Amino acid sequence: MKTFLIKTASLLAMVLLLGSCARGEQARPADLVAPAQGSTDFGSLRVHYNALPTSSISDAMASQYDVVKDPSTALVFVALRQIKGGEEENAKGSVTATAYDLQGARQEVNFKPVDIGEYTDHIGVVTISPRNTYRFELQVAADGRTQALEFQRNF
Questions:
Q1: Range of 49's domain?
Q2: Is residue 28 included in any domain, yes or no?
């Protein structure tokens, strides 16, 4: 009987403690935290890259890149920069990429160059599904050579 009372008291204490954790708090949506932009150097060529939901970009950025904000799409951004004297300058080149989700579904990323001041960015859009992870395989052609890199993002 003593063991039963101890177990019952312990269970009651746990229920009260757990119940008080959420008392008075309303469920709230998770905050979107954009992943840090990545970059990789190939000699004096620096490649900046990122992918983020188009619904999370500003209206000004969507307009500048001519992208429709949609929760089922992600913006894939690649910028080629030449490093000279410690500074970054625009680099001419081309980018191709393929995106893969966790089930192995494959999407080609069609990039378009977008001039932003003295720089040119390469912008593509892919279809995404919530709570999925995507691996991006990029091929960058610049300075007469082609380099490959990969990165991954969770949406």
A1: 35-154
A2: no
